[in-house]
Amino acid sequence: MVEKKSDDPGETIGLLDIKREGNNGTMAEVGVSQTVLVDSRSEGRKLPQYIAALSATLGALAAGSMLGWSSPVVFKITQANNTDYNFPINVSQGDWISSIINLGAAAICFPIGLIMDKIGRKLTMLLLVLPFTLGWLLITFASSVGMMIAGRFITGVAGGAFCVTAPAYTSEIAQDSIRGTLGSYFQLMITVGILFAYAVGSYTSVFVFNIFCTLVPIVFGVVFFFMPESPNYLVVKGHHEQARQALIRLRGREYDVDTELNSLQAKADDARQNPVSFASAITKRTALKAILICYSLMLFQQLSGINAVIFNTSAIFDSAGASIESAIATIIIGVIQVVATFVSSLVVDKLGRRILLMLSALVMCLCSTALGVFFFLKDAHGDGSAILTSISWLPLLSLSLFIISFSLGFGPIPWMMAGELCLIDIKSFVGSTAGTFNWLLSFTVTSTFNSLNTAIGSGQVFWMFAGIMLLGFVFIFFVVPETKGKSVDEIQLILGASPPPQSEEDGKK
């Protein structure tokens, strides 16, 4: 027997002892050093994952600037004395220029899921720099309304594609313990992009602002070029060594890469050896429940009244008697969104998704009810009535709380859940179709809000939104599971999957 002396003169560990322990299925007599070694290697480094996620969500920053662009710009370019473009733009054309991005985003969401499964998450996002840049160049140097609408449509295509690819990439590179935090960075960067548009677009010329917006996706492309591909995707495609190197870059060399890689490989092998048709995969009980949850959260997000509240920002500030110009008021709302979304990223892996969604729905319901009361009284009694003066503080408080609660829950989490609830064989389909559904709902709400406001009254519209959020609260309470810190397999069990058969050896343990 070969022996190795330890620091303790009374302790001897022999190779025969180790062999005996292996035969018995336990490592108890080897000593705690093995356990300590495994524990120290189990977590790995988090910083590379944060960097990769933030790099990916620079595309969301570009999408956010696209979304916020219309707020400071469309008002300027629809004025009679517009000098930013050498052609006239009326209000109706301005509405189309604002809203056409929703149709562009909806058009790409489904095919982009197929594309990123074919060529990879990283290459797909890098290629999106091209349409983003082309779209902004068309907007910047437009010589007609049609050219502007085409540019906005193309940027909408690129922005909508990022809304599918970035959350999928982030969910696949992240460890379970920080998956929620990294997933919330997508919505955080969207809000940062919107704030960037509000601030820069309000105080620069349209031409200078367009140039800044053109540079954002180019910066993303340069930074993201150096990030690794999703290890999950590489394993599925059979690139074992590339997947190993990607995991080492994301987790560090001290991390037990082989254990995670073997787990991913086992799932890929199982899927390859036991092929399931797409129709079977999408109609499984777990898949149907995941789809129901994803689509419903997107529905409640867009029907929460967020666009109605944003559209009424200036009116609410005016009604509250605040002597703040509309540009500054919009920037204040943008800052509130960014701060609240950042707070959400800090607490989503501590408090959990479900509690944040329920809190968000409940507070938004109460705020919409309060806003409905204010606007109903305004329509009934007029601006200068005594009753309105006595509650002049109400709309401003309700608006701020509404934005905060949306940004904490219903802003980031619905996009995150599509990446968490679905297995990789249906993740792209569910994420892309849910994204299409979301953008179509956004277009519908955006284009019908004014007519709905005229038809039934602004107060009643806010009450309708309040009722929808009450239904959302009930739905979350009874249907939506908590996925905080759960692995993919654990989440599938929560959704109703059958547990794997227990081996006789496991049963003895």
Major beta sheet summary? 2 strands, antiparallel
Radius of gyration: 26 Å
> What structural class results from the helix and strand content?
mainly alpha
Spatial arrangement of strands, main beta sheet: 1-2
Number of extended strands = 2
- Output the number of helix runs: 27
- CATH hierarchy, class of the largest domain: Mainly Alpha
Question: How far apart are the first and last residues' alpha carbons, in Å?
Answer: 30 Å
CATH topology descriptor of the largest domain = Growth Hormone, Chain: A
CATH superfamily of the largest domain: MFS general substrate transporter like domains
Order of helices and strands: EEHHHHHHHHHHHHHHHHHHHHHHHHHHH
Mean pLDDT across the residues is: 83
Give the domain tally: 3
Low-confidence stretches: 1-41
**What is the approximate shape?**
globular
Q: What fraction strand? A: under 5%
**CATH architectural designation of the largest domain:** Up-down Bundle
State the share of residues found in helices, binned by percent: over 70%
Give the SSE layout.
Elements: E1 3-5, E2 12-14, H1 15-24, H2 32-42, H3 47-56, H4 58-68, H5 70-77, H6 91-119, H7 121-127, H8 129-140, H9 145-173, H10 179-203, H11 206-224, H12 231-236, H13 240-251, H14 257-273, H15 278-282, H16 285-302, H17 306-311, H18 313-319, H19 326-351, H20 353-381, H21 386-390, H22 394-410, H23 413-421, H24 424-456, H25 458-479, H26 488-494, H27 504-508
Antiparallel strand pairs: 1-2
Helix pairs in contact: 3-9, 3-10, 4-9, 4-10, 4-11, 5-6, 6-7, 6-9, 6-24, 7-9, 8-9, 8-11, 9-10, 9-23, 9-24, 10-19, 13-14, 16-23, 16-24, 16-25, 19-20, 19-22, 20-22, 20-25, 23-24, 24-25
